[in-house]
Specification:
Strand 1, helix 1 and strand 2 form a beta-alpha-beta unit. This protein has a four-stranded parallel β-sheet, sandwiched between helices. The chain is built from six helices and four strands. The chain has one domain: Hypothetical protein PA1492 (Rossmann fold).
Length: 119
């Protein structure tokens, strides 16, 4: 399979039901990879840092924004509005003009349009 030359950031809630939120994010990450995209999922990148990492939470939340800067688009998971971190990622992407998508069909449509435009 040819990989699309686009990197997608997965943004969604982590706190609350952490295990369920990690599972939801992982399921979307799998769908994104299977659709031919490369993606980063902070739920998996910093899994259980709330208990395992000695750095303050703000440190990895700031790191997530650094990762968003390097991505072609942000894919918001359902319920993202309930998350301070995902809301910050959404707002940052909006300010910086990074495309924000809300489901897989929008992601594929956006990518197809972008690739057709760029030839």
């Amino acid at each position: 399979m040819n990989r699309r030359h686009l990197i997608i950031y997965i943004a969604g809630k982590y706190r609350g039901n952490i295990e369920e939120n990690i599972h939801t994010a992982r399921e979307m990450t799998i769908k994104v990879w299977e659709a031919g995209f490369t993606c980063i999922c902070p739920h998996l990148n910093t899994i259980h840092f709330e208990r395992d990492c000695k750095c303050p939470e703000e440190s990895y939340l700031e790191g997530d924004i650094e990762i968003v800067k390097r991505c072609n688009a942000v894919l918001m998971l359902e319920g993202w509005q309930e998350s301070i971190g995902a809301t910050d990622e959404h707002d940052f992407a909006h300010r910086e003009g990074i495309p924000i998508l809300y489901n897989m069909s929008d992601l594929v449509k956006w990518a197809d349009e972008k690739e057709n435009k760029n030839g």
